[in-house]
Amino acid sequence: MEQDQLNELMKARRQKMHQLKERGIDPFGKKYAPSHYSADVVDQFDELENKAVSLTGRLTGIRTHGKATFADLQDYKGRIQIYFRLDQLGEEKYSLIELFDIGDIIAVEGPVFRTKKGEITVAVHEYRLLTKSLRPLPEKWHGLKDIEMRYRQRYVDLIVNEKVRTTFIARSRIIQTMRDVLNEWGFLEMETPIMQTIAGGALARPFITYHNALDIKLYLRIATELHLKRLLVGGLDKVYEIGRIFRNEGISPFHNPEFTSVEIYQNYADYEDMMYITENLIYQCAMRVFGKSEATFQGETFDLTPPWARETMINIVRKYAGVDFSKIDDDAGALEAAREAGLELEGESSWGEILNLFFETYCEEQLRQPIFILDYPIDVSPLAKKIESDPRLTYRFEAFIAGKEVANAFTELNDPIDQRERFERQLARREAGDEEAHAMDEDFVTALEYGMPPAGGLGIGIDRIVMFLTDSPSIRDVILFPTLKPR
C-alpha cells in the first residue's frame, strides 16, 4: 500500500474516531465477556438456533445493502457472519455502523439463525464498539514480497493469516503435550540459569553480556545440559527443562540464534532409554495434537510410529559416501580419504572429525524417514561416554527427519577424570582459535567427583519438531518473533 494512500486511510479512520467521541462513544472500550466463540456457535447450531448469544471479535468484512448490513466477525476460534438491520437497531444505532472499519473490534448480541443461503449467522440486536482500528489491514499479506514484513509485524500476520494462527496454537499444544507426557513418565520440570559464567553443554559460539555490579562477563546459555546434570548428582533422578537457548550463529531456514529446546536427563539410564523417549515423545505430540502418527512436510510424508530405524555413523557413511572408516585406522588414513573425496578441511583434523565431516557432507540429507544415527566420534562428543570396544566412538545418537537433526543424546560421561581430560583437549582447541570449542568447567568436574550415577541425556529442538508437524518450511514460521536485522 502506497504511503500517501495509507496516510489518507489512517486520517479517515481518525476522523471517524473523533465522530464516535462526539456521539458519546468511547472508541477504546471496556471489558466484555462473550458467551461463546464463533466456532462454538457453528458447532452447536442445532442447540443454539434462535437463541441469543454474545460474541466479540474483529470485523474482517462489511457489506451494506441499504437497510441491512452483513459483516464477518473473526475471533480466536474462527469467523462467523453477523447481520445488522435498521428496523431492529433503530436509525441512530444503525447509522453508527458507517463509522466502523474493517479491523475494528466489537461485541455483538443476538439470536443465531441460518440464512437462505445456508450460512450460520448472528442477528445483531445489540452491539458495542470495543476498539477502533486506526490502521487498515493489508489487503494482500501473502507471497514472498511480504514475508519479511510478516515476521516484523507478526501481530498483523496473526490477524490476516489463519494458517499462522493455527501453527502457533499447535506449537503451544505441542509444548504442553511434551510437558504432560514427561510429567506422566515421572520427570520433574526444572529451571536453570539463562545467564552463565561459562557457556557449556554444546559446541557453539555464545552471546556475551556483562554484569555491572559483579564486574564479570556473562554468557547467554548455549545449552541447559551441565546444570541439569548437576541435579542428577544431587539425587534428582528424572529431570527436564523447556527453555530458550542462544547461539551466536548464522540464520537460515533451520537456524535462528534464539530457539527452544527440551533437555531431558535420567539417572540409571543410557542412550537406549533416550531413543525410547525421543521416538515416543514425538509420536505422542503427533497423536495428541493432530490425531495421527504421520506428518507431511513439504510434500514428503513421514511415519513417526515407534520404533524408528537405527544405523551407526560408520555404516551410514559407508552406504552413502562409499568410504569404510572401520578399515581406516588413524588420522593419516582419514586425511587421505578426505583428500580423495575433495573435502575441505580446516586446520588439523582427526579421524573422528573427518568421519563426522563425511557424514554431514554425504549422508544427512539422505536421511528422510525418522532414524537414529548412533555412535558418534569422541572428537565431536566431549560429554558422551566412550564405547569400550572402540574408544574412538561414543554412546551418542542424533535423530533425523527429512534430512535434519531433531534430537541429540548420549549415555552421559560420568567419569570426572575422563571429563577433565576432554575439557582440556577442547580448551587447547579454543586457544588455537576454535571459538566453538567447549570451555573448561571446573565446577562441573567437581560435581562429577562427588559421583553422578550412570545416566542418559537428551536434547530435542522444539522449533524443528513444530516445523515438521505443521508443514512450515522455515524456522521463522514457527517462532513468533524471529531474529531480524533492524531496518
Oligomer designation? single chain
Residue runs with pLDDT of under 50 for 5 or more positions? none
Strand residues, percent:
25-35%
The counted number of beta strands is: 21
Taken together, the total number of domains comes to: 2
Mean of pLDDT:
95
Global morphology: elongated
Task: Specify the CATH architecture of the largest domain.
Answer: 2-Layer Sandwich
Structural class by helix and strand composition: alpha+beta
If helices are DSSP runs of H or I spanning 4 or more residues, what is the number of helices? 16
Q: State the name of the first-level CATH class of the largest domain.
A: Alpha Beta
The major β-sheet equals: 8 strands, mixed
> Per CATH, what is the topology of the largest domain?
BirA Bifunctional Protein, domain 2
Spatial arrangement of strands, main beta sheet: 7-11-12-21-20-19-16-15
Going by CATH, the homologous superfamily of the largest domain would be Bira Bifunctional Protein, Domain 2
- Can you give the helix content as a percent range? 25-40%
Radius of gyration: 29 Å
Tell me the distance between the termini.
Answer: 18 Å
Describe the structure.
- There is one protein chain.
- By secondary structure, this protein is of the alpha+beta class.
- The chain has two domains: 3-131, Beta Barrel (OB fold (Dihydrolipoamide Acetyltransferase, E2P)); 159-308 and 369-477, Bira Bifunctional Protein, Domain 2 (BirA Bifunctional Protein, domain 2, 2-Layer Sandwich).
- 35% of the residues lie in helices and 26% in strands.
- The chain has 16 helices and 21 strands.
- The strands form five sheets. It has an eight-stranded mixed β-sheet, with helices on both faces. Strands 1-2-3-5-4 form a five-stranded mixed β-barrel.
- Strand 17 (386-387) and strand 18 form a beta hairpin.
- Helix 9 runs parallel beside helix 15, helix 11 crosses helix 13 (351-362) and helix 14 packs antiparallel against helix 15 (442-450).
- The longest helix is centred in the middle third of the chain and has 23 residues, at 162-184.
- It is elongated and about 90 Å long.
